[in-house]
Write a structure and sequence with these properties.
This protein has 298 residues and is of the alpha+beta class. 19% of the residues lie in helices and 38% in strands. It has 2 domains: 8-122 and 274-296, 3-Layer(aba) Sandwich (Rossmann fold); 129-266, Tumour Suppressor Smad4, CATH 2.60.200. The chain starts with 7 loop residues before the first strand and ends with a helix.
């Protein structure tokens, strides 16, 4: 299949981090040398002057660009993915963070990988997102998207919360715990992993439900079909100490009796990787499992 060749490229940088200036300068100079139209996110443009580029809002980027290069960590890419989800703009991540499961290109290898990507040599993946809605007394009062996870959790007191969970309108359980993570396959290597959830291949059509510090040893993570509808009800015994948070970035306070309805969003995010991207190699490197025996034999 012939890969799309990009003409208009957006640059989105980590907010409030002047340390990314060197990488941004190198990136802009490289793209200008390829005679590409360069559009810089208006918030990124406050970091430094980008001569010969256009500045635009995220909405304008979505409407006019056919590729977005995100410079930062996974958090920056998560925010960019939610902002661009309705525009079908593929994303490629340059990792300036720590772990970086999503932003898998380093500044050191950036030019070599971008040479391949600009030439149409790359892998592209469609990653699912979740959409969550807070329903209070029959009225939807808040909606948000999540690339990694939707988390219902306690926030201001050292006490557990009680949640009732339904899958496809069938009652599953009532739990007392510190929180509940509803995760995409992409998010299975984020908060859900640290809470004891399974690692899912990012292209699986599935959703995981992972309890955080449950009050019973019999509570375990559940993996359900990707088209499942999940409903979590905040018990009426809870005081004002519960929140729902999407990707750790979009919090919303909950009240007793609120329902959080979660399902897979009808649009996906397109992630671009270098042509020889290997998901299992990423897992080995990031989680420090082992070296590939084939590498030691070379």
């Amino acid at each position: 299949m012939t890969k799309h060749l990009f003409k208009s490229v957006a640059i989105i940088g980590k907010q409030g981090d002047p340390g990314i200036g060197k990488t941004l300068t190198t990136l802009v100079t490289y793209l200008q040398g390829k005679n590409l139209q360069i559009v810089v996110d208006e918030r990124t443009a406050t970091i430094m002057d980008f001569h010969g580029t256009t500045t635009a809002t995220i909405a304008s980027i979505g409407q006019q660009c056919d590729l977005a290069i995100v410079v930062g960590g996974d958090g920056t890419l998560l925010n960019s993915a939610r902002a661009l989800i309705d525009y079908n703009v593929p994303l490629v991540g340059i990792n300036l963070g720590r772990l970086g499961f999503l932003t898998d290109i380093t500044p050191r290898t950036m030019i070599d990988h971008l040479d391949n990507i600009i030439a149409g040599e790359y892998q592209i993946e469609d990653r699912s997102l979740l959409q969550s809605s807070v329903v209070r007394r029959g009225t939807t009062i808040h909606t948000s998207d999540a690339f990694n996870d939707v988390v219902i959790h306690k926030w201001n007191v050292a006490r557990m919360i009680e949640l009732d969970t339904y899958i496809n309108d069938r009652f599953v359980n009532s739990q007392r715990l510190d929180g509940l993570i509803v995760s995409t396959p992409t998010g299975s290597t984020a908060y859900a992993l640290s809470a004891g959830g399974p690692i899912l291949h990012p292209l699986l059509d599935a959703i995981t439900i992972v309890p955080v510090c449950p009050h019973t040893l019999s509570s375990r993570p559940i993996v359900v079909a990707g088209d499942s509808s999940i409903k979590v009800i905040v018990s009426k015994s809870n005081l004002e100490n519960t929140q729902v948070t999407c990707d750790g970035q979009v919090p919303y306070s909950l009240s007793a009796g609120d329902q959080i309805e979660i399902h897979k969003k009808d649009r996906s995010i397109r992630l671009i990787h270098p042509p020889r991207h290997d998901h299992y190699e990423v897992l080995r490197a990031k989680l420090r499992w082992a070296e590939n025996p084939q590498d030691s034999n070379r």
